[in-house]
User: What shape does this take?
Amino acid sequence: MTRIQLLTILVNFIFIAYIARLIIKGKLREEYAIIWVICTILLTIFSFWPNGLEIMAKLLGVFQAPNLLFTGAIFAILIYLVHISVVSSKLHNNIRKLTQEMALLKQELEKEKQENKHPQKDPD
Assistant: This one.
């Protein structure tokens, strides 16, 4: 095994441990960590199997293996960006709804305070 393979494998294991630590501490949710774990596992597999990228490129009809790597990375990034956009849109809608509900509750509270300050007298 070459020095770069060993270094890549070591860095991949350190990165997986770091991702696990972030999940355990609650700083990273599992749904966001899955893409990092999958990419790291793929890099680890290709670190152990150096000719694997060439074989995969031939099977998929890609002329040069680095093109397959870059195409896969771009595809993964695009999927991740769409996912983040969906989550961001959902959170934006939730924040808007919560803000509206909070404004209504604040208005009701102030109305209650006004009524308690100036109680209406019964016409009895």
Q: What stands out?
A: The helical segments are 3-25, 30-48, 52-60, 65-117.
